[in-house]
Amino acid sequence: MIERDATTGALVLFSGGQDSATCLAWALDRYETVETIGFDYGQRHRVELECREGIRERLARDFPAWAGRLGDDHLIDLSVLGSISDTAMTREIEIETAASGLPNTFVPGRNLMFMTIAAAVAYRRGLRVLVGGMCETDFSGYPDCRDDTMKALQVTLNLGMASRQIIETPLMWLDKADTWRLADSIGGQALVELIRVETHTCYVGERAELHDWGFGCGECPACRLRKRGYEAYLTGEKVTQPA
Questions:
Q1: Hey, how many other C-beta atoms are within 10 angstroms of the C-beta on 77?
Q2: Annotated binding-site ranges
Q3: Annotated binding-site members for Zn(2+)
Q4: Could you report the per-residue pLDDT of 196-207, keeping only the tens digit for each?
Q5: Residues annotated in the binding site for ATP, as ranges?
Q6: Which EC numbers characterise this protein's activity in its record (predicted)?
């Protein structure tokens, strides 16, 4: 049984995807006050933003104990980030490896901006904990998803705002199969099914066909990772990154 913190509120970076929805459930299971924040930065898969409200409604409806804890949602216009980003996440270009060695789905500064703005909103709202779905176990090498980055950013934010905010990243050391298992451990098959059907991960925004693992094109890196993770979750195996 988790001992809930009735005095500390949390703000969850909530995109509408699998990872952030799992983090939202994780926070609702721990804190008495949980708000959400999302960012519209001109992402190619903007359909994820359209999933957010439905997920929030389902979480409150299907898990009544969480309904009273789920607070306000904040959607922030970060179109400036899209305007200065020439990436496969913000342009209709083919997903490939860039000259830097990183996939061209990497949006430089994205998580740094997300967390900084979230910290400012949390400061104003009196919320001490920031929750993000960053992970360096199953990821594409994004430097702003690393544990060291989040730890350094926490120090910087607290110095810059004379605060004592905490950045929580519950998925940091989990592979995608373990992320599905975490959802199962929090809310059982009801939560797994909600995440499977209601969330969106596909980089190209494909939401026409519902697969066993959820909606998506099935070919982009996000879909392949989500599919492998779901299959490994069902079989009890670990996910290994492809060569």
A1: 10
A2: 14-24, 202, 217, 220, 223
A3: 202, 217, 220, 223
A4: 999 999 988 899
A5: 14-24
A6: 6.3.4.20
